[in-house]
Specification:
The complex is a heterodimer of chains A (about 325) and B (about 350).
Chain A lengths: L18 H10 L12 H9 L5 H4 L5 E8 L8 E8 L6 E7 L13 H11 L2 E6 L10 H15 L6 E11 L1 H15 L7 E5 L10 H5 L8 H12 L26 E6 L5 H13 L4 E6 L6 H4 L4 H17 L1
Helix pairs in contact in A: 4-11, 5-6
Chain B lengths: L17 H13 L4 H12 L3 E5 L4 E5 L18 E4 L2 E5 L7 H21 L8 H9 L5 H11 L7 E7 L5 E7 L1 E3 L2 E3 L10 E4 L8 H13 L13 E3 L6 H7 L8 H10 L5 H10 L3 H8 L3 H15 L6 H18 L2
Parallel strand pairs in B: 9-10
Antiparallel strand pairs in B: 1-2, 1-4, 3-4, 5-6, 5-9, 7-8
Helix pairs in contact in B: 1-2, 1-3, 2-3, 4-5, 9-10, 9-11, 9-12
The chains are: A alpha/beta (about 325), B alpha+beta (about 350).
Chain lengths: ~325, ~350
Amino acid sequence: MTVTSSSAERVGPPPPFDPELEAALTLVHGTRPASLTPDLIEAWRQGSAVNEPTDEELSRGGAFEAYERTVPGPAGAPDVTLLICRPVNAPAPTPVLYNIHGGGMVLGNRRMGLVDVLDMALEAGAAVVSVEYRLASEHPHPAPVEDCYAGLLWVADNTAELNADPGRIVVVGTSAGGGLAAAVVLMARDRKGPALAGQMLLCPMLDDRNDTPSAVQMEGVGFWDRTSNETGWTALLGDARGGPDVSPYAAPARATDLSGLPPAFIDVGSAETFRDEDVAYATAIWRAGGQAELHVWPGGFHGFAQLAPHAAVSQAAKAARPAWLRRIL
Amino acid sequence: MEELAGRIAALDPEAGDALKAVVFFDRLVEGRANLEAIVRGAAVLTGHPARLVDEARHLRIRVTPEGVRQDPAGPADPAWPYATADTATLWLERPGTARPLDLTVLERAAQAVRTTLERTRGRATPADDAALIEVILDDGASGPARAHAAHRLGLRTDVPLRALALGGPCGKVEAKITEDRRANGRTVLPRLPAEDGLRVGVGPAVPFAELPGSWQAARLALRLAADDTDQDPGPSVVYADELGGLAVLAGAVGPETPPAPDVEALERAASAAPWMLRTLHAAAYAPSLRAAATDLVVHHSTLHDRLTHAERLLGWNVRDPAGRLRLQLAFALRRLHRHP
């Protein structure tokens, strides 16, 4: 698909934030710089580690038992670590949410944002497997996505150990993890890999060109603006970013064939960089004859449901996710 | 990169976060957030459930510290810290002494509620009188809510008050509250709507706090008030404090109670002649048969002829004291069945 270049498109001011979300921002204002630039990556990595969930939090009050497993990585690459959270005392094989964390391709780890995924899994009676993938720029494309795919292959081949149902594996990813999740799903289709039950793409980062109307409109606003996005994509792709030769496995918005994919769930805020590329991805899936559920939450900034889970719009967004899981599983 | 900021959680009272609360609620008001968002803010920032109740506007919102709407079931605890906004009260469901931060949040949230109420719902108007009266007469309503309602109505709370139950012709019951005024030893009722078939039950004079009890008694008295028509002769205004044992009788007759044989006999007699019920009522309540004849504007002998006819239909003598009491009870029971 083509995206209209920003110079030809006139965009209005950023859509207003939801009032509850905007008020929530007043509580966190000043805790971090507005945009990620290459020189800030290290500081942001350290900052994100502070909010990592503890083992106790991961157990969700004893509902899950968590352990780690080192599994073979891509050919010629190091092993991959999986954080496995299985429902305690599940009577029958469970679905699996295969989770890919966010962090702009450059930061985060397998624990990042996992609490929300576990809460969702709890409602769907599913296990969660969260993959530790190598980060850019130390490990540019295709290292991150190949790590994610290697971990998925292991899960699909080892469902007995996981007490999991091989027919009910859903790939879940947030932000950069959403982009990687969409890419892993494309890979599984193209490489005749495991059959997947669904792809849940939460405010996914899909388009390295970084020039949609929403990217332009939201420049300098919210939690992941156009500058931060450029930093992330450049770390992953180097000079190739935005050029003619970017693989859909790096930036799924580049895919020209979106047929034959499992059902997709895509959600995004109306006031964030990724709005237009995420809406376009859902549209492209429908156009190809596929199934997608798209939610554009009004006044949501990037990651609003995670930062301000109490807000009414966050509660609605978070309720839609397990509801979709229950329908497809 | 929301992970860098973590999650919104309760403010730290030790960290000088009061200013954050001020800015937070200002921003909600600027963004025209709704009342639930304001109550949610109070709950999330303090880590305690918050509830907003405005009986005049039929408004009840309760939100948990997780931000989940969960409307109140029980009454508010008088020990909880609260702040008021117009007719609304905002509580933090928090035991023990409120921290300064709680009070800041309450005050700012209540101010946001006031602004939002004025913007979205307008001021409580006299049209809301019925709702305000309902609050005062509801013994489930909190003390502060009842006091607010009295204030809105301009009702004095330091004098004896009576609840009135007004029964319209189609069975609708309205409530009124009046100061206890007397002239020549009799209670003076307020001006009531000039409505055909209006029946009134007057509750006893009580202190403000006991008005729910006066209201219960007024509704009971209303059941014994008559339409004052040929089909239901008798006084249309009944005072609860004059009922005596009839109050016990009223309590014993509900919608499911089958009519006593005397009531059925009275109905049968009523269908025999249009003058029957008024005649029997006069015979039962007038000081003498002569006075009854005068009331009915009939000749003394005509009254005797009518009563002889009636006694045959009823099956008992209505002219001796025991028969008069039996007839009075039959009338009372018949009204209780007519006005369940």
